[in-house]
Amino acid sequence: MDLFAGYRNRRFACSALLAIFGLSLGVSGAAGQAAIPACRDAGNNFDLSRGLAGTSFDASRLAAPDRALVARDAMLGDHVVRLTWLVGDRAAGGPRAELADQCLPAEGAPVFYSLSFLIPHNLPLDAGGSVTIAQFHTASSNHKPVVALRFRAAGHLDVTLNHLVPKAPGETPRSLQIKPLRFEDLPRGQWHTIGFLAVWSPGADGRLDIVFDGRPVFRYRGQTNFPDQNGAGPYFKFGVYPSEGNSKPLSVEYARYERVGKPGEALLQARGFGGGKGTVYRVGDPRIVVPAKR
């Protein structure tokens, strides 16, 4: 089934003017962007039902306003945003179409995040290629993403961690990247939800738990942030990031983003984080492979 055909194309077309109007406000105010605020001082409105203009998303990293279109999705029963990268598009120095929750949480305190996404059946990735669909990034642009989700042409969704700084001869950010988790043969054309419970820290007291489609799949304790961030955790952003470009346009859909600082036990239990379930990962362990649930 082509998820971008039929009623969905009509829905996106009808909402394009509203989305373009809303995005134009965010893009026009992006020049000379100020320092990223702490999350306690930032907005927390991610409701897409009235378009992007009224949300807290930063929409400044789009090659053009129409790269992000909002519509109601009948399958999900909610409003979603489709982010599109066209061949040749560049924003903030690289190929991307991005929305960001542009705030920095404090290190040492738990934060819950959740995002739903849909990879279309016909995503035309080049052979051997990949596209990052979401990431946590520090305020320092010279770092690799602290956590990244990369969908590969082979059909897998990989989670990578970066928080180590090269020190020894021959070490590079790429060589120090940790590859702890893979969702094998991710079903396309359907909605998935990934939740994170994070404690950002440059020390051993960090934490990262992941629940995917209601299943606890990953538990990690240890360093989760680069050591030069002065008490600030990374911010979250999502979109289409073909790191080496791609020969054809790419679109991915997103919905229901949440960020909750110091979440209560009731919320965590409801989202699948209770009971200490999920495979424990320690640096140096083999990658955890989660079979697809169809």
Overview of this structure, please?
This protein has helices spanning 7-28, 265-270, and strands at residues 68-73, 78-85, 97-101, 110-118, 130-137, 147-152, 157-161, 178-183, 191-199, 207-212, 215-221, 235-241, 250-261, 279-281, 288-290. It is mainly beta. It has a single domain, classed as Jelly Rolls (Sandwich), CATH 2.60.120. The strands form two sheets. Strands 1-2-13-4-9-10-11-14 form an eight-stranded mixed sheet. The longest helix has 22 residues, at 7-28. The radius of gyration is 18 Å and the shape is globular. The model is unreliable at 1-33 (pLDDT under 50).
CATH topology: Jelly Rolls
CATH architecture assignment name: Sandwich
Instruction: Give helix % range.
Output: under 10%
**What count of helical segments does DSSP give?**
2
* Mean pLDDT reading: 89
Give the class from helix and strand content and strand pairing: mainly beta
Any chance you could write out the topology, listing elements then pairs?
Elements: H1 7-28, E1 68-73, E2 78-85, E3 97-101, E4 110-118, E5 130-137, E6 147-152, E7 157-161, E8 178-183, E9 191-199, E10 207-212, E11 215-221, E12 235-241, E13 250-261, H2 265-270, E14 279-281, E15 288-290
Parallel strand pairs: 8-15, 11-14
Antiparallel strand pairs: 1-2, 2-13, 3-12, 4-9, 4-13, 5-6, 5-12, 6-7, 7-8, 9-10, 10-11
Keywords:
single chain, 294 residues, mainly beta, Jelly Rolls, eight-stranded mixed beta sheet, seven-stranded mixed beta sheet, 10% helix, 34% strand, disordered N terminus
